[in-house]
Design a protein that fits this description.
This protein has a single domain, classed as ACT-like. Chain A, domain 2 (Alpha-Beta Plaits, 2-Layer Sandwich). It is built from 3 helices and 4 strands, in the order E-H-E-E-H-E-H. The chain is α+β, with helices and mostly antiparallel strands. It is globular, with a radius of gyration of 16 Å. The chain has a 4-stranded antiparallel sheet with strand order 2-3-1-4. A hairpin with a 2-residue loop joins strand 2 and strand 3.
């Protein structure tokens, strides 16, 4: 399974605007459990540079392209906010990564 960590940064002065966009995006693109499982819906913190938020999703087998198509549509909505930046990171689970180096994840 692929896990996606999406991290965004925005000026503190834009926090209310980002919050409104977040609610708009949720309404327009409700979570689709057939594509991904949300591990962390949203985490937010302040930084010396402004605000930082993140989400973590676990992508269902064979659904990465559908996930990315939806994610980019959502990103375009947020891109209207001045100073908004986002990064998506893709991770393999340990079960998938260890065989790449000839190892197997133990049962815990």
């Amino acid at each position: 399974m692929v896990m996606v960590v999406s991290t965004s940064w925005f000026p503190t002065s834009k926090a209310a605007e980002v919050g409104k966009k977040y609610l708009e995006v949720l309404k327009q693109f409700p979570p689709d459990k057939s594509i991904s499982k949300v591990i962390v819906r949203v985490g937010v913190r302040t930084t010396t540079e402004g605000m930082k938020s993140f989400t973590i999703s676990e992508i269902k087998e064979g659904k990465l392209k559908e996930f990315m198509d939806l994610a980019y549509k959502q990103i375009l909505i947020y891109s209207e906010i001045e100073g908004y930046k986002i990064e998506m990171e893709f991770y393999l689970s340990g079960v998938e990564a260890l065989p790449l180096v000839g190892l197997k994840m133990p049962e815990l």
